[in-house]
Amino acid sequence: MEFSGFRPEGLDLLIENRLMNSKDFYETCKPRIRELVQEPFYALIERMASTMCEIDPLLVIEPKRMVSRVRRDTRYTHDKSLYRDHAWITFGRKKGLFAERPCFYFEISPEFWGYGCGYYHAPPAEMCLAREMMLAEDKLFLDAFHAVETHPQFSLYGEQYKRPKFPSAPTAYQPWLSRKNLGVSCEFTDHTPLWHDGFVDGMLSDLRALAPLYRFFCTLKERTQGTEEVR
Questions:
Q1: 17 near 25, Cβ under 8 Å?
Q2: What is the pLDDT of residues 22-63, one digit of tens each?
C-alpha cells in the first residue's frame, strides 16, 4: 500500500470513539478505524522501513506489532476511559527479556503530532550508567549531545529530579543529567502536513540525525543487560 497521507476523518473518529466510550460503538466503527487509522499507519511503516533499517538492521518491522492499540489497558491507571484518541508507531528492537527498549516513534493526537527517539521507563541502572557516561564525556554521549544540540527542532523530555544531582557539572549537561528517563521529540500543532505525504522525507531526515542518540541508548541497554543490582 502506498502512503499518501492521513485523513482528518481518522483523527475525528478516534476522538468520537473516546468520547462515546462504548464497546458497542467501537465495534460498529472498528472497520472505519482500520481503514482511516491503522492502514495509513501500515503504509507509513512500509515507506519508512528501509531508512529506519539503515539506522539499525535489528529493528522489528512488523506493522501489527508497531501500531498502538485503540483499546486502553485500564488496570493500572486512574483514567478508566476505554479508548485512546491518539495513535502512534514505534521502531525498536525485539523486546526479548526486557520490556523497556529504546525506540524511534511517530505519533498523532488531537493537540499535536510529532516524532522522536525515546527510552520509555528506562531502568534506573541504565540511567545511572548514562549519567556516568555524561560526566566522563564519553564519545557516545558527546555524539548524542551534539546531534540534539545542533538540531534546534528537537526538545529533551523526561521526568526530572526536583534538585540537580550534579550541580557542579557543566551547565549544558544539566538538562540531561537531571532526568529520571530521557527522550527527544519534535512536535507540531498544525495538523495540515499530515493530510499529504510531504512531511515524511523531512521526518526521516530528522530521525537519521538522531541516530547517535539512539546508539547511545542502545549501548546503555547492551552494557547493563544482566545487571541485577539497581544503583
A1: yes
A2: 999 999 999 999 999 999 999 999 999 999 999 999 999 999
Q: How far is CA 41 from CA 32, 94, 107, in A?
A: 14, 20, 10
Q: What digits encode the pLDDT tens for the residues 123-152? A: 899 999 999 999 999 999 999 999 999 999
Closest among 43, 55, 37 to 103, alpha carbons compared = 55
Task: Kindly state the DSSP code that residue 188 receives in the 8-state scheme.
Answer: E
Residues 6+ apart with CB under 8 A from 187: 112, 113, 114, 155
Whether residue 230 has pLDDT greater than 50: no
Q: Give the closest residue to 109 by CA, choosing from 61, 159, 181, 37.
A: 37
Can you give the three-state secondary structure of 2-25, one letter per residue?
CCCCCCHHHHHHHHHHHHHCCHHH
pTM over 0.85: yes
The CA distance from 7 to 75, in Å, is 32
At 216, which helix (H) or strand (E)?
A: helix 211-224
pLDDT at residue 96, rounded to an integer: 64
Place of cell 533499517: 53
Contacts of 4 (CB under 8 A, 6+ apart): 43, 196, 197
Determine the average pLDDT of the residues in 84-92.
96
